[in-house]
Amino acid sequence: MLNRIVPAPQQWQGTTGTFTLPDTVRVAADEASNSVADTLGAELVEITGISASRSDDSVGSDATVVLSVDAGDPAFRALSDACRAEAYLIRIDDRIELVGASRRGLLWATRSLLQLLTAGEELPRGTVVDWPDYPVRGFLLDVGRRFAHPAFVRDLIRMMSWFKLNMFVVHLNDNEITKDTGRPWGEAQHGFRLRSENPRYAPLASPDGAYTRADWESFEELARRHGSDLVPEIDAPAHARAFIVADPSLGLNDGESDLLDLANPAATEFMRDLVDEFVTWFSGPYFHFGADEYDEQHTELYRDYFNTMAQHVRAKGKVPMAWGSLTKMERGAPPTAYDRDVMICCWNNDWYHPGEAIDHGYRIVNCSDDWLYTVPYPTTTTAPDWTDRPCGRAGSRMSSPADSGSNRVTRRSSALCPRYGMTWYRPTTTNTRSTP
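Predicted structure:
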C-alpha cells in the first residue's frame, strides 16, 4: 500500500494491525492548518466518497484525522533546514495524525494520505516521516506558443500538488522562429497571454486566447492552496515578436525579427513599463524575465539589459529569474559585471553550463533541455501548424499539442520544462540535493 505514495516516503516505521476509516470522518485542525483541513475534507469526498466534517476543537478529541503545523516535532529535529522546510509525518494508530513542519509540509501529508486511501479505507498502523530531496520541484508550461484554457491550467495546478511539485512557471509570450518554419517574420505566429484593460497594453493580448486578471488571480489562489509558487515569465529581449508587432520600432532589422533593438532605449523602457503594468497581478515571490537566445553580437547591450531588468524586478519586490545564457553571450569569457542576485534556469549547457553558473555564484534551477524538455516536432518537412487549436479545453485533464495529424511528440527522457509543448513528466530540481 505504501507504494501508493508519490514520491516514495523517506521513512516508514510500521506497528501491528490496521486502522479503518469510518464512513464519516471528523477533521480537527489548529489555526495554522485550517485551510489545509478544508481542502482535505473536500478531497476526501471527491476521492473516496467518505463524507467529512470539522471537529469543534483543534485538539480533536472526537476527530478521526487531526492536522497541525509544528516545526519542532521530534521527528524533524535531525533534519537540515532545507529538508525540514517541507517535511511532514503521518501517524496511524487509533486515529490519524498529520503534522507538517510548515503549512506546505502539512499539505504534502494530506496528499500522501489521500494516495494511501486510493487503495482502500483500511490503513496499516505506523508512522511515515517524509521530506523532499530537492527544495525546488517544478513544472513550466509554454502558453505563449499555444494557449491553454484557464480550466486546464487550474487542473494542472491541482495535478502538480498531487505529486508535491512546488513551482509552476507560466511562459507567457513566444513566437515561431522563421529559420525553423521557413515563413517570413510578417507571417510568424506569436502570442502574449495577458489581457490588460489599459488601452496601451490591451492590443498585446492574443486574439486566440489570453488571461484576464480574474483568470490569473484564480491561478494564484489555487496555487497558494495547493502548495505551489506561481511564476510568471515574460520573455525578452529575444522571443519578443508579440511586442515588436505592436511597435516595429522596438525590433532589430526594422522590425523584421523577434529580437528587441537594445540600442534603442525605448525597447528596455517598454519592457520595464510592461513589468510595471502586470506586476500587481502577481502575488508570488518570483518573476522570470526570460533573457535567453539573444544575438551574441550585442554582448554589451545584452548585459545592460540583463542588469536593468534584474534590478527593476527586485525593486518591485520579486526575486528575478532568467534563462542561463552567459557562456554564449560572453563568447566563453567569464561573465563579469552581471547581476549575481538572479536565479538562473540552466536550460542548455552550451548557452550556460550549470557548473559555471554555480562557480560564478548563481543559484540555479535545472531545466536541462536534453533531459527535461518535451517538444512537438513535425514528422515531415512541412512547417508545423503553430496556429492549431488551443490545448487543454475546459473539462480536459490533459491534452497533447501533437495529437493532430502530422505532428508527433518526441520525449527526450522528458520532464519538466516543455517550453514548446504541453505534456509533462519529471520535475525540475535545484543544483543541490538536500541531506538530512
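Summary: The chain has twelve helices and 19 strands.
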